[in-house]
Amino acid sequence: MGDIEAPAVGATEARPNVLLSILPTKEFALSRKGLLLIAEVLLCFLAFVCFVASSAASFITAPLLEFLAALFLLFAYSTKLNQRFTSFHWPLMDFLRCVSASIIFFVISIISVSKYSDGASKAAGVFGFIATIVFAFDFYIIFNDLADFLRRGGQPSEEQPGHTARDDSSDYDSD
């Protein structure tokens, strides 16, 4: 009958594994980078929804694009896509995303809180300010990791006993 056949006996057991493979692992989701990316995704989505419901609907593009970029990086880091595609400089791309997101969220949050009077605009501004803090913290961490990496001359660091700050950023040191 060609390509359309009855599923094999073991095929139904493999489907949940495919769906689970696109979700971040528990280890990554509980790491510093995983928690930051999950917080960024959630805050961007909440700001997007609030901007859609507000009279400041002209600002929906920035949270939507940042949501998609953070979701892509969450997927890329959780599936170790960054280790397969080494032609991109992933930490620099992540750093630039965080810097631009923190500046953009700060500006649109100030405008939405000060210019618009409806509750959804105020809520979007509050979520935007919180997202600004999260993105700024993320780019501060990335900057420190990149500075340490460059100080070592581009060589990956050796894991030191009792020092866990490098454990979360081990993705940055792979070439």
Molecular structure report:
The protein has 175 residues and is mainly α. It is 67% helix and 0% strand. The chain has helices at residues 11-21, 26-29, 32-53, 61-78, 81-84, 90-115, 119-151. It is globular. The chain starts with 10 loop residues before the first helix and ends in a 24-residue tail after the last helix.
Top keywords for this entry?
single chain; 175 residues; mainly alpha; 7 helices; 67% helix; disordered C terminus
- Element-by-element helix/strand order: HHHHHHH
Quaternary structure type: single chain
Mean pLDDT: 81
Amount of beta strand: under 5%
Could you say which overall geometry the principal axes of the C-alpha atoms support? globular
Radius of gyration: 20 Å
Low-confidence stretches: 160-175
Number of helices: 7
N- to C-terminal separation? 47 Å
- Structural class computed from helices and strand pairing: mainly alpha
What summary fits the major beta sheet?
A: none
Helicity level, as a percent range?
55-70%
Please give the structural blueprint.
Layout: H1 11-21, H2 26-29, H3 32-53, H4 61-78, H5 81-84, H6 90-115, H7 119-151
Helix pairs in contact: 3-4, 3-7, 4-6, 6-7
TL;DR of this structure?
The protein has helices spanning 11-21, 26-29, 32-53, 61-78, 81-84, 90-115, 119-151. It is an all-alpha fold.
